[in-house]
Amino acid sequence: MATSAAASRIDPAEMLKEAALRLFAEHGVEGVTVRQIAELAGQKNHAAVGYHFGSKEALVRAVIAHGARLIDELRNHHLDQLEARGGPETLFDVTRLLVQTSLLPANSPWSDCYNRFVVVLQLSNRQLFMDALEGRWNSGYLRCLDHVRRLLAPMPPAMVNQRLLFMGSSLGGILSARESQLADTSRPHPTWTDPATLDAVAAALAAILES
């Protein structure tokens, strides 16, 4: 797989992160070697990962933090706008914002690999994922959860937390499946290329919360 033209114009550390993300999304962290990452990033020196990041785990953490930061900044920006208009007023408002800001348009590979990477990683090493966030890059998500709790105020807190767990897992799983399908360019994907599908996903997540 060739690196993108955009990646060729940025520094080697960024190229390594992008290459790692693509490989981790396809094969999982444990299924990828630093040699493969360096080769995909166009680095002739196979010790490039160690030189720029110190270790493979440090590179994994850098990939987690990079994608999480992009999503968190986008999410907080849209949430600020929604709150300025007096929202969110409904659970659908919240879940639609979560869906829309989990995608990073025109920012490949972060736009088409990151959800797959995160879902697979959390199944094998959730603690590594949470540690890499450093309590910094999920503020927008936590703000959204606060709005859900406000909108579900009559519901017992333990039940709300359970619904939030179900919703969060479903959000990641659905968007990961979307990325996997769209990565297959051998056939069309009318469901996932239909803009209305993402609103349908948001509606399903809202139903999980309120049903």
UniProtKB/TrEMBL annotation:
One Pfam family name is: TetR_N
Keywords linked to the UniProt accession: DNA-binding, Transcription, Transcription regulation
Q: SUPFAM superfamilies of this UniProt entry? A: Homeodomain-like
GO MF term list: DNA-binding transcription factor activity; transcription cis-regulatory region binding
Matching Gene3D superfamilies: Tetracycline Repressor, domain 2 (1.10.357.10)
Domain HTH tetR-type residue range list: 18-63
Which PANTHER family does the record cross-reference, listed alphabetically?
HTH-TYPE TRANSCRIPTIONAL REGULATOR BETI, HTH-TYPE TRANSCRIPTIONAL REGULATOR RUTR
User: Which protein are we looking at?
Assistant: TetR/AcrR family transcriptional regulator
